[in-house]
Write a structure and sequence with these properties.
mainly alpha, 2 strands, 274 residues, two-stranded antiparallel sheet
Length: 274
């Protein structure tokens, strides 16, 4: 697996651990409150909170308040998990683009469509000063070019078409469906829209009225689907002429060293432009 996927894998495991721990904690806390409901105490005291530390839980430990309080916390936990999942996915895509470009710069040059973004001026090369820094800067520009798609499906399709990797349509569409939930959470108050209904042709996602049921199962299924997509992408990228890419990377570094670094390169460019 690539270094990018190793980082992604570790972060997904940590996110799942967090989700499972808090979900279990909410379950146990809710059981504790229900067991002692209508005890004349508030929820904070029932859960043995230190006096004055959890003031927003100074509400009656009654059935209605218990249900409302814990339902809200569960919904927010699962929403935040899906939002964080999207961020981890974006980070992985950004990192894998950078890693691919370092191994084979020529493969992704065509992704930069803005002429201004494709040019590095002399002063920029001097400021960057090293081959690694220049490669990193161009990688960022490539990812910015991908991001201009302003749509996760289009972003993914652009990367796949540029790198010419083959990804199962079922795996891709399944993950995109769950990634779209993040948009609904942030921009549509967790209500489904017509676009989402068209994406969810098999009615995988449970809704009540127009509202997404923000459950642990939904958050967990989202993580599994996106993880499966990233693993599939990574497998294709890693096996994509890996040896050749490494050889090109070594040649590029050797060529850079032979130039004597950035200052000799600038001198040469200036001579060529006289």
């Amino acid at each position: 697996m690539t270094k990018s996927f190793q980082i992604f894998d570790g972060k997904i495991r940590s996110l799942k651990q967090h989700l499972q721990l808090i979900d279990l904690s909410l379950t146990l806390a809710c059981k504790c409150c229900n067991k002692e409901k209508d005890n004349g105490k508030n929820i904070a005291t029932t859960l043995h909170a230190v006096s004055g530390t959890h003031l927003q839980l100074n509400i009656p430990n009654k059935t209605t308040d218990i249900k409302r309080t814990f339902a809200y916390s569960r919904r927010k936990l699962n929403e935040q998990a899906i939002i964080e999942l999207y961020r981890l996915f974006s980070d992985y895509i950004s990192n894998i683009v950078s890693e691919l470009f370092k191994n084979n710069p020529y493969q992704l040059f065509g992704a930069i469509t803005d002429k201004n973004e494709r040019a590095l001026f002399y002063h920029e090369i001097i400021q960057l000063s090293s081959y690694d820094a220049i490669i990193e800067e161009i990688s960022k520009r490539i990812y910015r070019s991908f991001e201009k798609q302003r749509s996760t499906p289009k972003l993914l399709e652009k990367i796949i078409s540029t790198t010419k990797v083959s990804i199962s349509n079922e795996i891709k569409q399944d993950a995109l469906l769950y990634l779209e939930i993040r948009y609904l959470i942030i921009h549509n108050n967790s209500n489904v829209d017509e676009k989402f209904k068209r994406m969810d042709k098999d009615n995988k996602i449970h809704i009540t009225g127009k509202k997404l049921n923000m459950t642990y199962d939904l958050a967990n299924a989202s993580m599994n689907a996106v993880f499966k997509l990233c693993k599939s992408i990574d497998t294709r990228f890693y096996t994509l002429d890996n040896g050749t890419k490494k050889n090109k990377w070594r040649r590029n570094r050797l060529n850079w060293n032979r130039w004597g670094g950035v200052h000799h390169l600038i001198k040469s460019l200036l001579k060529q432009n006289k």
